[in-house]
Design brief:
This protein is an alpha/beta fold and 393 residues long. Helix content is 36%, strand content 28%. The protein is built from 11 helices and 21 strands. An 8-stranded mixed β-sheet has the order 7-6-15-16-17-14-18-21. Strands 9-3-2-13-20-19 form a 6-stranded mixed β-sheet. Helix 1 runs parallel beside helix 6 and helix 1 runs parallel beside helix 8. The chain binds flavin-adenine dinucleotide and 3,4-dihydroxybenzoic acid (DHB). 3,4-dihydroxybenzoic acid (DHB) binds next to strand 16.
Length: 393
């Protein structure tokens, strides 16, 4: 079946979903396709921290009703090392905060809104055989087979590749056109979702000789915790008791206790930095994880995805109306922020994790950096400014 739309969007993650909504608000039609089911997209456990700029984007777009009710504003974080837990006060240092609101909830809100605004067909879930062609022309074509087995060819003015790191849009760009800069880290995160009230009022990032640990939360009765593990670690080797024992050891502090509880979800995520540039090839525009990945220690991945499409939506609206300037500036504009977040995420990651095989020099340098960032107002302000996010310009 041959059809036409203005913008074809591949991927119903945070980037693709927000983009289709922002385009609708500008009177631009789009077709959004996703190869997973709605239930799968809504249950996928991932990020949890929104920068205040991301909250502002969602609010301005009229998407923050539940976020404003259920999101938990945090004015700082704890950094724990060498048996001490020190607070970094974002509010005092920058006047800004972050909001804990899970990616699952952002995705649920966006899906519900798209379906309410544009009908049940607004998102084509569970498609197969996605392909993009004619990228060098002014009429690129999005191909897919719908869940009920109909093969579609959708002619577009432009296509947005919002299909994540393992998607097919970036690989559809001819070889040799793009540069990719990549680093794999010698560790991974084992993440759990637990049915237990958080044992802390703010997130705790803990540097420990046994490895990094992070205590986050999802609400008054649900906690989210992470442990540094080896990249080739088998989740089968981590029964719940072992996870709680290891977390307790890494967060240990006199007079404080970690409350354990039933584990609802458990997974291991590798850690990688990756930037592919430019974020455009002809009429294909990449956004979010399709173009770049950061290790999660700085809580930036989701925020970068939202920032990309906040720029991409007006750029594509202009392009459709014959004004290419913002589309031409899109990649360079986003890559500035992407590289700042890539640096910050690398810096937080290498400061807080235990590098396998590291010598005493590296261990002491990490401790010195941690003491500095928690005692110098200038250094703490730099962390706070990066964590709460750069203004969306
Ligand atoms: P995605 O959320 O990956 O969405 C891409 C969508 O495209 C997916 O729904 C996918 O199914 C779909 N898709 C892929 N291929 C096709 C195709 N061929 N056809 C149609 N659809 C397709 N960030 C943090 O800040 N903190 C964290 O703790 C954290 N944990 C993470 C854990 C994991 C396992 C992963 C993968 C990422 C994590 N991130 C985390 C990063 C953050 O979740 C991402 O940066 C964010 O999801 C990016 O959004 P996106 O929309 O660009 O991509
Ligand atoms: C969460 C994830 C992160 O990567 C992070 O740095 C902070 C919080 C979370 O899932 O809550």
């Amino acid at each position: 079946m041959r059809t036409r739309t203005q913008i074809g969007i591949v991927g119903a993650g945070p980037a693709g979903l927000l983009l289709s909504h922002l385009l609708t608000q500008r009177g631009i039609d789009s077709v959004l396709i996703e190869n997973r089911s709605r239930a799968y997209c809504e249950a996928r456990q991932r990020a949890g921290v929104l920068e205040d700029g991301s909250v502002a984007v969602l609010r301005t777009a009229g998407l923050a009703d539940r976020l404003d009710q259920e999101g938990i504003e945090h004015g700082g974080i704890y950094l724990q090392f060498a048996g001490e837990r020190r607070h970094i006060d974002f509010r005092a240092l920058t006047g800004r905060t972050v909001t804990v609101y899970a990616q699952t909830e952002v995705v649920k809100d966006l899906i519900a809104r798209r379906l309410a605004d544009a009908g049940e067909g607004a998102i084509q879930f569970s498609v197969t055989g996605t392909a993009v062609t004619g990228l060098e022309s002014d009429e690129p074509v999005l191909h897919y087979t719908s869940q009920d087995g109909v093969r579609y060819e959708v002619t577009c003015d432009a296509i947005a590749g919002c299909d994540g790191f393992h998607g097919m849009c970036r690989p559809a760009i001819p070889a040799g056109v793009q540069s990719a800069v990549e680093r794999d880290y010698p560790y991974a995160w084992l993440g759990i979702l637990a049915d237990v009230p958080p044992s802390t009022d703010e997130l705790i990032y803990a540097h420990h000789p046994r490895g990094f640990a992070l205590h986050s939360l999802r609400g008054p009765t649900v906690s989210r915790l992470y442990l540094q593990v080896d990249p080739d670690e088998d989740i089968g080797g981590w029964p719940d008791d072992r996870i709680w024992a290891e977390l307790s050891e890494r967060f240990a502090l006199p007079g404080w206790e970690l409350k354990p509880g039933p584990v609802l979800d458990k997974s291991i995520t590798p850690m990688r930095s990756f930037v592919s540039a430019p974020m455009r090839y002809g009429r294909l525009f990449l956004a979010g994880d399709a173009a770049h990945i950061v290790p999660p220690t700085g809580a930036k991945g989701l925020n970068l995805a939202l920032a990309d499409v906040a720029h991409l939506a007006p750029a594509l609206a202009d392009l459709v109306h014959g004004k290419p300037d913002r589309a031409d500036a899109y990649s360079a504009t986003c890559l500035d922020r992407v590289w700042r977040s890539t640096h910050f995420s690398w810096w937080m990651t290498t400061m807080l994790h235990r590098t396998p095989g590291a010598d005493e020099m590296e261990a002491q340098l990490q401790l010195s950096q941690l003491r500095y960032v928690t005692s110098s107002r200038a250094a703490a302000t730099s962390l706070a400014e990066n964590y709460t996010g750069l203004p969306l310009t």
